[in-house]
Specification:
This protein has 243 residues and is mainly beta. The chain has two domains: 1-91, Thrombin, subunit H (Beta Barrel); 119-243, Kelch-type beta propeller (Neuraminidase). Helices cover 0% and strands 48% of the residues. It has strands at 4-10, 15-20, 25-28, 36-37, 46-52, 55-60, 65-68, 76-78, 86-92, 95-100, 105-108, 116-118, 126-132, 135-140, 145-148, 156-157, 166-172, 175-180, 185-188, 196-197, 206-212, 215-220, 225-228, 236-237. The strands form six sheets. Strands 1-2-3-4 form a four-stranded antiparallel sheet, with no helix packed on it. The protein starts with a strand and ends in a 6-residue tail after the last strand.
Length: 243
């Protein structure tokens, strides 16, 4: 059984790419109706994948980084400066930024050909990263949040109202929204400088959050799906077909 850990899309030609356990990479060119295996150079679990500048880049266990420049058909290994797990990767301002264990942050400004280490103020595990409004924001264990306004070169601590671990973060409508354990939902409207608690209808762990069509959607354990139509201020349970 293939476990999918991350998913992204190149909206221009409509290519969907999913990555997961044992280095598996799947690709769809028919708007997600069907998926085929893409050529993967690794058997390590891939935990995050993103798209930018006509390039797919995926990251995973043992510092693995792979990239594709042929629209996701095949992937090649990229030299990584670390051997610890990477959990997520994002793209913005022609820069790929990956985050992972022990506060590791890697950045690439050459379209994913090579990655360099970046210094983080606190060496805590980082679980999620996103980009918006010329700002990178990373979240992690014990409610830790960091942000960079210089294209990922330096990072500062952001104010966090929780000690619960944060697992994912996204951006939309000039708002950053982070989710994590025990149903925690945080939002920032000051470009990631500080975050406040949002009203959450669940105490279940939340593992992912996204934004589209002016709606934030978060997903988590026990099939939980939450949505917000007021820019992340309040959230309601959505009907889920699984539990």
């Amino acid at each position: 059984t293939l476990a999918i850990t991350s998913f992204t899309v190149d909206t221009s030609p409509g290519v969907f790419v999913a990555a997961g356990n044992s280095g598996n990479i799947l690709r769809s060119t028919d708007n997600g109706s069907s998926f085929d295996n893409a050529t993967s150079p690794t058997a390590n679990t891939l935990k995050g994948v993103t798209f930018g500048n006509n390039t797919f880049v995926a990251v995973g266990s043992s510092g693995n980084i792979v990239r594709s420049m042929d629209n996701g058909s095949s992937f090649d290994n990229v030299t990584s400066p670390i051997e610890t797990d990477l959990y997520r990767i994002t793209f913005g301002n022609n820069t790929f930024v990956a985050v992972g264990q022990n506060g590791n942050i890697l950045k690439s400004t050459d379209n994913g050909s090579s990655f360099d280490n970046v210094t983080l103020p606190i060496p805590t595990n980082l679980r999620g990263v996103t980009f918006g409004n010329n700002t990178f924001v990373a979240v992690g264990d014990s409610g830790y949040i960091a942000r960079s306004t210089d294209n990922g070169t330096t990072w500062d601590n952001a104010t966090s109202p929780t000690a619960n671990s944060l697992v994912d973060v996204t951006f939309g409508n000039n708002t950053f929204v982070a989710v994590g354990l025990s149903g925690n939902i945080l939002r920032s409207t000051d470009n990631g400088s500080s975050f406040d608690n949002a009203t959450s209808p669940t105490g279940n762990h939340l593992y992912g959050v996204g934004h589209g069509n002016n709606i934030f959607v978060a997903v988590g354990s026990y099939g939980n799906i939450l949505r917000s139509t007021d820019n992340g201020t309040t959230w309601d349970n959505a009907t889920s077909p699984t539990a």
